[in-house]
């Protein structure tokens, strides 16, 4: 191998390393921006998450954020995906139960806790807090992944004949989710009183849904 070949290979390795480092730096910067936006989201609510306020918190120009995310909706999508991870963590930390009724109660309670603990994420994901943001396919897939445990419990109950067969799995999940979301949404809108009163309504709603899906006489 000639000195020229050795030099060429060395330069190639340096170039590759530089490109990888540059990509890594961009990814690190994206994460820092999302972290800053997430802090604003939790501390000040969805209305505080603007490109200008995030750039101020980062101490950088708005141009940098636009280059990384194109617009506010691009940043909202990353926050949505982060919210999916938080929701998944809530479900994964839910106590397992052999009885599907109890398991559904546990998952329903986990959904309330997510909405209560991460109310700003909840409003972004399910409450229309960002009027111009509509979840894309990746975001919706993140929601499906987050709710995998709910899918598993309902699907298994159907296979055991515990849930009436005229309903398909997707429909059952939508009924379950929509009913619980309705209570949380009303609470966040100030229609159900304080958290304790709203939680009592939520628990009763959850019990009615679970009992209708899994009646005791089956």
From TrEMBL:
It comes from the Bacteria. Residues 50-69 bind DNA. The keyword Translocase does not apply. Residues 27-87 form the HTH tetR-type domain. Pfam families: TetR_C_33, TetR_N. Keywords: DNA-binding, Transcription, Transcription regulation. The keyword DNA-binding applies. PANTHER family: ACREF/ENVCD OPERON REPRESSOR-RELATED, ACREF_ENVCD OPERON REPRESSOR-RELATED. This is TetR/AcrR family transcriptional regulator. It comes from Cohnella soli.
């Amino acid at each position: 191998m000639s000195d020229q070949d050795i030099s060429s290979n060395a330069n190639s390795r340096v170039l590759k390393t530089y490109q990888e480092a540059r990509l890594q730096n961009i990814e690190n910067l994206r994460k820092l921006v999302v972290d800053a936006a997430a802090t604003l989201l939790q501390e000040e609510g969805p209305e505080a998450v603007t490109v200008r306020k995030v750039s101020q918190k980062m101490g950088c120009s708005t141009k940098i954020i636009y280059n990384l995310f194109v617009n506010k909706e691009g940043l909202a999508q990353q926050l949505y995906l982060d919210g999916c991870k938080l929701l998944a963590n809530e479900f994964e930390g839910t106590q397992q139960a052999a009885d599907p009724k109890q398991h559904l109660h546990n998952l329903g309670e986990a959904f309330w806790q997510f909405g209560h603990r991460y109310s700003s994420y909840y409003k972004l994901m399910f409450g229309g807090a960002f009027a111009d943001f509509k979840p894309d396919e990746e975001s919706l897939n993140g929601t499906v992944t987050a709710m995998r445990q709910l899918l598993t419990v309902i699907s298994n109950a159907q296979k055991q004949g515990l849930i009436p067969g005229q309903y398909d799995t997707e429909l059952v999940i939508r009924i379950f989710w929509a009913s619980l979301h309705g209570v949380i949404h009303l609470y966040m809108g100030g229609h159900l009183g304080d958290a304790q009163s709203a939680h009592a309504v939520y628990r009763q709603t959850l019990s009615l849904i679970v009992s209708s899906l899994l009646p005791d006489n089956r």
